Amino acid sequence: MRWLFLGLIIINAFYFLWNHQAIGSSEQALQGVRGQKPAYSGQVKLLSEAVDLESKAMQEDFKKSEVMLLGGFSDNYQAQRLQQRLLSLDIDSQVTEIDSKVDIEYWVYLQPLPSRQAAVRQLKELQARKIDGYLITTGELNNGVSLGMFAREDSAQGVAERMSAAGYEPSIKSVERSQRLYWVVIESSARRLVDQALLKQLVEDFAGMQHLFMPYEKLRL
Asked: Where are the beta strands (DSSP E) in 53-169?
């Protein structure tokens, strides 16, 4: 009987110790969970940043992309008519103007003299020697003498050589001739709406219409 009583006491003691340790472990685990930060908070921030970066990248790619140009008209009215036609087809567009280099001419002249009187005397001297020319009265070559404008460089060189042989010191200046043309700009997002069938119809309806592609950043919009 005594051993049975002692056995019960020992069993109760072991049960008390085990229960106390289990409660302590549960409290530590609960404190650890409370001290942790949500694992997803940093991920949400990174996802938001990734979306912003992707959006900015798409905008940069769009700016760098090519756009389609239709037109090449010398008359702005024709470009406006073409734009209205495209808008009626739900194709967003806008009109812009581009200065296109037509050709280069070569100007042969004598350098300006210090005064108008000296320039006039030189011109009369040339005329007396049967050399054609005219007095330049404006611009950076004011009081110089023009000896002609030539479409071919070798022709200008020939005149300059003859003038040098006559005792003068001619100069040659290349002059670019440009023409302002009007175009209708169709951006990349709407280019898919302009197919070959539509281009063919537009060429028939708008005489002289051209189409080409140009980088977005080169346009003056």
From this structure: 66-73, 94-110, 134-135, 145-150
Residue 206: C-alpha distances to residues 39, 127, 184, 185, 200 (Å): 64, 51, 12, 16, 10
How far apart CA 170 and CA 41 sit, in angstroms, is 79
Number of C-beta neighbours around residue 108 at 10 A: 23
Phi, psi of 86 (to 5 degrees): -70, -40
Dist CA 150 CA 96 (whole Å): 32
Please give the domain boundaries of the chain with CATH numbers for all domains.
Answer: 61-101+179-218 (3.30.70.260), 102-177 (3.30.70.1070)
Rounded to whole angstroms, how far apart are CA atoms 219 and 97?
9
* pTM of the predicted structure, to 2 decimals: 0.47
Answer whether 96's CB lies under 8 Å from 221's CB.
yes
Q: Tell me how far apart the 2 most distant CA atoms of the chain are, in Å.
A: 157
- Coil vs helix vs strand at 45: helix
The string of pLDDT tens digits covering residues 85-142 is 999 999 989 999 988 776 788 999 999 999 999 999 999 999 999 998 999 999 999 9
